[in-house]
Amino acid sequence: MSRMPGGDKSAYESAIRRAIAECESLDQDIREQRRRLLEMEGRRIRLQRMMDCLRPMLTPEQETALFGAKDGLPAENAATTAGPKAGKAHVLMMRMFASAPARTWTAASVLAALEDPVVVSQTQVYNFLQYFRRAGILKRIGRGRYVFADLNAETVEGA
Fold first, then answer.
1. pTM for this one?
2. 72: left (phi over 0), alpha (psi -120 to 50) or beta
């Protein structure tokens, strides 16, 4: 190997090794920060979905007090807040889940608990249950079984 101009080759090698080690450390830090950012974005999306699901249950006065003149918090991605229309069945199901947070729900138990005038098919109930699970409102505990989710949990499940 030829001699490096202006100094000892071991000093250059040492400097390069330190630079390589620092680059590897920075790469690891960048990966960790990206992972953390994805977690925060997932949490933000779940919170927005939860607000979208719960908002129809507010009175106009509560809505004004919470959201003011704005039309809710701005969504990062409009597609993430799209879901079933907040019809009567949607609102009734949300109230049922919130009123019995420890209860295990199935499609059959939701259908049985809904009031008679509400016309909803079992397929629609399955769709609502899946939507509420994806939105973070319900947590799946087994095949076709759900419980009201802990909305304060810091997880990225399903995001």
1. 0.45
2. left
Each residue's pLDDT, cut to its tens digit, for the chain (159 residues) gives: 455 555 678 889 999 999 999 999 999 998 888 888 878 887 887 888 888 888 888 888 888 888 775 554 443 333 333 344 446 777 777 777 777 777 888 888 888 887 665 677 888 888 888 888 887 788 889 998 998 876 544 443 443
**What does R_g of the chain's alpha carbons equal in angstroms?**
26
DSSP one-letter code for 44: H
Q: How far is CA 122 from CA 104, 110, 112, 134, 146, in A?
A: 17, 9, 10, 18, 15
CA distance 18 to 65: 57
Q: Which residues contact 109 (CB under 8 A, 6 or more apart)?
A: 103
